[in-house]
Amino acid sequence: MSFKIDPYLNVDAGTMNPYQHGEVFVLDDGSEVDLDLGNYERFLDVNLTGDHNITTGKVYRAVIEKERRGDYLGKTVQIIPHITDEIKAQLRGVGEKEGADIVLVEVGGTVGDIEGMPFLEAVRQLGQEIGKENVFFVHTTLVPIMGAVGEQKTKPTQQSVRELRSMGIQPSVIVARGEHSLEPDIKKKIAFFCDVPVEGVISAPDASTIYDVPLLFDGQGLTEYIMKTLQLKPKAEDMREWKEYLEKLKNPEKEVTIALVGKYTHLKDSYISHIEAFHHAGAHARVRVNLRWVESLDIEKHGTKALEGSDGILVPGGFGDRGIEGKIAATRYAAENDIPFQGVCLGFQLATVGFAREVLHLKDANSSEFSPKTPHPVIDLLPEQRSVKGMGATMRLGAHEIDLEPDSMTAKLYGSTKIFERHRHRYEINPAYIPKLEDAGLRYVGRSDAGRRMEVLELKGHPYFVASQFHPELRSRPLRPSPIHLGLVRAAAS
Questions:
Q1: Ramachandran angles phi, psi of 363, nearest 5°
Q2: How many domains does the chain fold into?
Q3: Active-site annotation holds for 96
Q4: Comparing C-alpha atoms, which of 154, 162, 210 is closest to residue 178?
Q5: Are 429 and 421 in contact (CB under 8 A)?
Q6: Position 239 pLDDT exceeds 70
Q7: What is the pLDDT of residue 271?
Q8: Is the pLDDT of residue 231 over 70?
Q9: Active-site residue among 345, 423, 455, 462?
Q10: Cβ distance 447 to 419 under 8 Å?
């Protein structure tokens, strides 16, 4: 069971700008969390909850609410013990609730950062309370290479470990991040100055793919060292499936180029779940997926030239009206040129807008989110939401059940007519326009909430034109790729 501690004051990642922080990762329970929890889910093949993400804002809010209720009986509320006690309570509470044998906690930030100090103090206290034999501290440091001779420098590592030890925390393992593996004498030097066994100094050199890292660490004896130190018994697991996945990922039989038309393409972490979903799908299909990053504003300025030569097109989610027309143009380019297409969330909505404009000749069709006075709001709030339109409609978050038409391409991709996928949106396809859209060839083959919400569309006569209101990338795993991403890759490779 995994935790991510983020020292920022935000209660969660839901309001954070993708340009600053990367994507907002949404969990089954609807929590909006740090993108690192997506990596946890992908690598551990687990479904986490909002309780697995702790922020400074979440901790302080809980403590202040207790103080306002009088829970502290008039005592002066302080960082120690009240804030640190709350941190420990949250870590313990979820671990006990889930009956976890191991609670894996990542404390984000840099050693010495003022905002991270209460969390380091809390985990130090936790080690005292549950016994140091039950706690294993892993410290990740940078080992830079300086000068023309390529000398690996250990001073940053020594300094950060000294800072940690001044707080009462002695690392059990040091993971040394760098361009190359540690030289044997450098590894011994770090072990000597940081008071860590040599087998506890692990190299984390650049890897061809992040999925190499577990095997890279295991090959250095890290697994055995942790199990021995914590007196754990390993399960009979030879990582055969993981190795097979890596072999497929690294040895593709074909190659395709997928154009990702986005609004935040200058920071690739804004679309990290899509990137990983294409790794998963690519390995499964034995196809190398090369992503072509296309800024939607560039399409608005220069036309669809940037899409030429693409084997497939993905229009992902996003918020705000910047670059919207470029995304719509990308959906039409795919539709009119028989290029395999996938739309996600906003991409699903804009595929509908583009179709309404070009096929139904509703030239002013739009989303009421971007054009409140449009005469043709093909994307709008549902009737029950309109009464609170001025206040801002509630975000639809988390995993919801979806029914697929049995004869649809999407049902065949999933191998089921009932699926569960994660959402993050407010606006919906306007039910008033569904009959006209479907009569003209845009089929809504996936629906939810007794058919009131449109979830999946397919374009009749197109080799592969599939879009979803939900985010299939959020549940994609190395050994179980997103069916819709896999469908796009296979269509692009055919």
A1: -60, -30
A2: 2
A3: no
A4: 154
A5: no
A6: yes
A7: 96
A8: yes
A9: 345
A10: no
